[in-house]
Each structure stands twice: as C-alpha cells, then as structure tokens.
Amino acid sequence: MSHEHLGAAAKQESNDGLVKQHSKRNALVNQITPLSLVPISSANAMLVLSSKLRFSFDPQERDCYFPLPEFILVTGTVSLSIIVLGVIVRHILNWIMQNKVVTTPQERLIKCLRVLGKTLSVVQVCLLFSGTLLLFSHVPYVVMEQKAGESRSDYYCDYQLVMFSGVLLGMSWILILLAAICYVFVKYCSCCKTNADDNKTS
C-alpha cells in the first residue's frame, strides 16, 4: 500500500473519530441542556414589565388586585435562568469533552446539571399552568380602565399587564400543543415505517 493510501486512511480515521466525538458531545448537550418554553425575548420583556409594576400589600397601591405581577416576575426569572443555564452547560461540556476522558467529579457535575435543568423546566411548566388558571379565573372580574377623578376599583388590573400575560400564555400553550402533535406524528410515522420495513423483509 502506498504512502498516499496510508495517509488518506489515517486522515479518514481521524475525521471519523472527530465526527463521533462531535456527535457524542451534541447528544450529551441535548440531554443536559434544559428546555425553555419561553423565548429569551419574552423572558426579558417579562422582567422589564415587572420592573415597572408596583408591588404592595395594599390593593389601592398595586397595579393588579390579584398576584399577576408576581407571576410575571417569577416566570421571567425562571425562564431567563433556564436560558443562561443552557449557555453555561454548553461551555462546561465543551471544556469536559476536550480532554476526551470524563472524570468522576466531572460526571457528578454533569448529573447535577441535568437534575437542575429538568427541575427548572418542570418549575416553568408548573408556573405556566398555574399562571393560566390564575389569569383566566380573574379575567371576567377585571377592570382595566380607571376614569379620572374616580377612586380605583377593587378589581383593577393594568391593561398592558393583562394583555401581555394573555398573549404570552396563549402562545405558550399553542406551541406546546403543536410540539405534542408533531411528536406523536413523528413517533407514529416511525413506528409505521418500521412495521412496513419488517413486512417487506419477511
């Protein structure tokens, strides 16, 4: 075998090793990186909006008579934390995979990051579910207009806050529904394809 063939074979083997390592890293990143149902732009908007709201135990001093501002603040914080954690996880995994050997402390760190990411994702889903119940159970009673010279209604809630929350929650559940439909469709089609291939083989 000539030197050119040996060099080409070694280069191909090296490329295959890099491809396998890259695929393994991507699979590990996808397993550990937490999934955020709220985009980063929406999370930032939630924090900006909540920073302009008034929080008080006195209903007359609040911008909403039920705890919708608190929901916006907590959900925005959790959503942004998930996104930041995803970036940190990618950097940590890139650093770990450079050595090609995962030590025991690094393996424990990966497990902790996986648990933390899944916990934050579950907390986010619970917040979206509770926020939906909170908002739509109070919408029939909400007063979003305040006439000049009149005292604030006991059921007053800021118009921008209600509309933003409604659009955000509605969009989130629509995307979750579409994702579930796509998952079932892909899962069902893959099963049908596997059965069809088995029938052809037999």
Question: What does this entry look like structurally?
Answer:
The chain is mainly α. It has a domain of 133 residues. 75% of the residues lie in helices and 0% in strands. The chain has five helices and no strands. Helix 1 packs antiparallel against helix 3, helix 3 runs antiparallel to helix 4 and helix 4 packs across helix 5. It is elongated. The relative contact order is 0.11.
Layout of secondary structure:
Layout: H1 3-32, H2 40-51, H3 68-98, H4 104-138, H5 159-201
Quaternary structure: single chain
**Rounded mean pLDDT score:** 78
Strand segment count: 0
Task: Please state roughly what percent of the residues sit in beta strands, choosing from under 5%, 5-15%, 15-25%, 25-35%, 35-45% or over 45%.
Answer: under 5%
| Helix-strand string | HHHHH
Overall shape: it is elongated
Radius of gyration computed on alpha carbons: 25 Å
Helix content: over 70%
Major β-sheet annotation: none
Class of secondary structure makeup:
mainly alpha
Unreliable stretches covering 5 or more consecutive residues: none
